[in-house]
Amino acid sequence: YKEIQLANRPEGTPSNEDFAFVEKEIASPGEGEVLLKTLYLSVDPYMRGRMRDVKSYVAPYKLNEAISGGTLAEVVESNSELLQKGDIVNGTLKWAEYNVAKAEKVQKVDPTIAPITTRLGILGLTGLTAYFGLLDIGKPQAGETVVVSGAAGAVGSVVGQIAKLKGARAVGIAGSQEKIDYLINELGFDAAVNYKSETFNEDLKQALPDGVDVYFDNVGGEVSDAVIWELNNKARVVLCGTISSYNTPGADIGPRIQWKFITTSSMMKGFTLGDYASEFRTGAADLGKWLQEGKLKYEETIIEGFENTPQAFFGLFEGSNLGKQLVKVADP
Ligand code: NDP
After folding, report:
1. Residue 161 located in a structural domain
2. 267 in a domain, yes or no?
3. How many whole angstroms from its chain centre is CA 272?
């Protein structure tokens, strides 16, 4: 079987040369371990940061070692009482067609609750990120305006829908007309604006007749510069991601924004999902309930084939995905 290793630390935009497909032999699981066949992989923007050799909230990937991330897999051999052959599990595993893991390091997935892929998206890391960032930091109130950038992506699409559930006006920012239409017609956003349009600044102002009370920022850069000038008094800015600068760190120099924060008594706060680790159950229960009640919708963009994992990852920086980007490696 094959695994994908980090061959180079990418400079700028990552490319195929930065990844190596390496042939490996399937190993038997030791005591307390399971042999897992990969079904789906999650590719995520934060992985770009881990390809850099810098200290951060997660350790960097090592050169010439497998990349790892959120994975759904099937137990094909078990040497543990915790799991049986045929069980589906979710865990942080190598980008590999097979993994051997300690049974207690993966979580069993109940495939009857929702499609299993939701565990890599709306009921997993990205859904929880939207949930905690918006509700704990943004605290949207009924009638307020919530703006979200990266709105048609995995996190952003959930942020806008939760804002609507809380009675707020949801305004999305995304990079294509198809995404704008999806946000308004499928997800019920009140307005959506294309940041690639030449008239972005005017379009944004027009979409914000009552200004901005909460800005959930997934992208940073010029998109955020434009939103910040529209903040209302006591606005809350939720710093979730800055994907516009992930390939060019250090280049993200914007206008000075302090004055706007002072004069509107606004606040800005960053977070990583790990801050909420002790509350994941509550978040996942709420998201699961809203999903079952039909109050939340989600989209997945699934690329078939393990060999296409790097392409799926590159696509995040080109906006090829609507909703959560996944790679399908094998059928259960
Ligand atoms: P998405 O599904 O949103 O995919 C990334 C999207 O970003 C693309 O589809 C693209 O959409 C947009 N994008 C790419 N490049 C740019 C650019 N230069 N300027 C503006 N938009 C761009 O990914 P996720 O939902 O998984 O992640 C969204 C953000 O949340 C990321 O910044 C990520 O790092 C962050 N995050 C933070 C977490 C935390 O704990 N703080 C946890 C999880 C995610 P478009 O077509 O609109 O350009």
Report:
1. yes
2. yes
3. 11
Question: CA 2, CA 38: separation in Å to the nearest integer?
Answer: 11
Asked if the ipTM is above 0.90, the reply is yes
The residue nearest atom 19 of ligand 1, judged by CA position, is 244
Pick left, alpha or beta for residue 146 (phi over 0 → left; psi -120 to 50 → alpha; otherwise beta).
Answer: beta
284 is a domain residue:
no
Strands (E), the chain: 2-6, 19-23, 33-42, 68-78, 88-94, 98-102, 107-108, 145-149, 169-174, 191-194, 212-217, 231-239, 267-270, 300-304, 324-328
Question: Which residues of the chain, if any, have pLDDT below 70?
Answer: 252-255
Contact 326, 121 (CB under 8 A): yes
The pLDDT assigned to 255 comes to 66
In whole angstroms, what is the distance from residue 192 CA to residue 169 CA? 11
- The tens digit of pLDDT for each residue in 114-168 reads 999 999 999 999 999 999 999 999 999 999 999 999 999 999 999 999 999 999 9
Query: 182 vs 61, 149, 178, 189, CA distance in Å?
Result: 35, 14, 6, 9
Q: What is the pLDDT of residue 256?
A: 76
Give me the pLDDT at residue 233, please. Answer: 98
> How confident is the model at residue 249, as a pLDDT?
77
Instruction: Please report, for the domain that includes residue 237, its CATH number.
Output: 3.40.50.720
CA of 152 to the centre of ligand 1 (A): 9
Q: Is 217 in the pocket of ligand 1 (CB under 6 A)?
A: no
Residue 307 tokens read as 């060999």
The CA 211 to ligand 1 mean position distance, Å, reads: 23
Tell me, in angstroms, the distance from the centre of ligand 1 to residue 312's CA: 13
Q: Is the CB–ligand 1 distance for residue 201 below 6 Å? A: no
Q: Nearest 5 degrees, angle CA 50-CA 56-CA 59?
A: 50
Residue 145 and residue 9 share a domain = no
